[in-house]
Amino acid sequence: MAELVQPHVRHITAVAHGSVSASELAAFGLGPADVLDFSVNTNPLGPAPSVLAALGTTDWTRYPGDDEAPLRQALAERAGVAAQCVALGNGSAELIWLLGLATLRPGETVAVLGPTFGEYTRAAHILGAHVRDVRAVDDVPAARLVFLCNPNNPTGDHHPRAVVERLLADDPLRLVVLDEAYAAFVDRDRFWPSEPLLAYPNLVILRSMTKDQALPGLRLGYLLADPQVAGAVEAVRPPWSTNAGALRAGLAALEPAAEAHVAAARAVVHTSRHLLTHGLTELGLHVRPSGANFVLVEVGDGATFRRALLTEGHIVVRDCASFGLPHCVRIACRQPDDCRRLLERCATLVGAVRR
User: Fold this and answer.
1) pLDDT number for residue 113
2) Domain 49-257 CATH assignment equals 3.40.640.10
3) At 221, phi and psi to the nearest 5?
4) Secondary structure (DSSP) of 163-181
5) d(Cα 153, Cα 351) in Å, to the nearest integer?
6) How far apart, in Å, are the Cα atoms of 1 and each of 6, 128, 327?
7) Kindly report the CA angle at 354 between 353 and 355, in degrees rounded to 5?
């Protein structure tokens, strides 16, 4: 039966993601409520009450198409673009795949600035593209698509506007995909709005609405792009890929109460990021400077460190081996009291190793 499967997809495997599975916890006699989960990078305050209330008004007996146009229009007005420049998706992850489907031909090159989110590479490989993994903007080759996560997962690097603009200007025939899944958590004195760069028709901006609202199980994302690119993505999108509840939540997330909730979360992230960076550095660990709602920490052996925190402290962090960083873990910025508890457990682990 293998002959029925396309040769280039036979050996593609799933990308490892951060959240801990119920089956892994069950092996230690634990459930999700028993652990502090620092492996998922979402709003540390949880969803805005107004967004949850909007979910409660969802009519699940109807197909979800009615709310697509209002959400697309609201997102367009917020970005200062036409509604034809907006495409919706079942999370920004689906939009990565749809972009490839709409723009890539087998054998074309995709450049990925890594180490970063693994779905860029997986989607490109499934579509038969050749992937070039590069570590610096100056090393980006000629390519059909360039993926740049900003701020980057897992490093937290936040590239300035000039870096992105150079990528756009250097080759107008390549699409630069700027993934801003974590942009809502960047300090405002470091944040720069990317919408003005849509004057370059080869820019695609990806955003996740469910990370902002701590609803990753809901799945909702959108992109901003030239109308021809956004239209192509919509043309290959499966029908009703964004469900009725996600569309309602998306509209509510644009209201002032929900945006104030995200601003409050950004302040918490700022405090917790400083707390984690300072506390872990004091323990002798190297913490990479981060502009995102997580920090990357060198711990020697990420898998061993993660397992020890889980079994001894009921705390989950992200082992970064799947990013090609087996010596690191990624730690999300939860509320300060949670971060202090993590630091206490880390101090115990580090002290035990040194003894």
Assistant:
1) 98
2) yes
3) -145, 175
4) HHHHHHHH-TTSEEEEE-T
5) 29
6) 11, 20, 40
7) 90
- pLDDT per residue as tens digits for the range 243-280: 999 999 999 999 999 999 999 999 999 999 999 999 99
349 by Cβ neighbours in 10 Å (0-12 / 13-18 / 19+) ranks as: middle
CB 91 within 8 A of CB 246: no
Predicted confidence (pLDDT) per residue in 286-307, tens digit: 999 999 999 999 999 999 999 9
Which stretch of 41-55, 110-124, 145-159, 339-353 has the lowest confidence by average pLDDT? Answer: 339-353
Token output for 202 = 């080869």
Phi and psi dihedrals of 77, rounded to 5?
-65, -40
Q: Per-residue confidence at 353, pLDDT binned at 50, 70, 90?
A: low
What is the pLDDT averaged over residues 172-201?
A: 97
- DSSP category for residue 216: T
**DSSP structure class, residue 5:** S
Structure tokens at 249: 């939540």
Four-CA torsion 322, 325, 326, 329, nearest 10 degrees: -90
302 Cβ contact partners less than 8 Å away, ≥ 6 residues apart: 319, 320, 321, 325, 326, 327, 328, 329
Where does 2-46+259-354 sit in CATH, by number?
3.90.1150.10
Where is 133: in which H helix or E strand? strand 130-134
Query: In the 8-state DSSP scheme, what is residue 221?
Result: E
CATH 3.40.640.10, the chain: domain bounds:
49-257
| Residues in CB range of 127: below 8 A, 6 or more apart | 100, 101, 104, 106
d(CA 260, CA 24): 36
Q: Of 183-187, 222-226, 310-314, which gets the smallest average pLDDT?
A: 310-314
Percentage of the residues of the chain whose pLDDT score is greater than 70:
99
- With beta carbons less than 8 A apart as the criterion, state whether 196 and 166 touch: no
Query: Taking the model in full, what pTM does it have?
Result: 0.95
Half-sphere exposure of 224 (CA within 13 A, CB side): 26
In the chain, residues under CATH classification 3.90.1150.10 are: 2-46+259-354
Residue with tokens 């910025």: 333
Q: Which residue has the tokens 């999300």?
A: 332
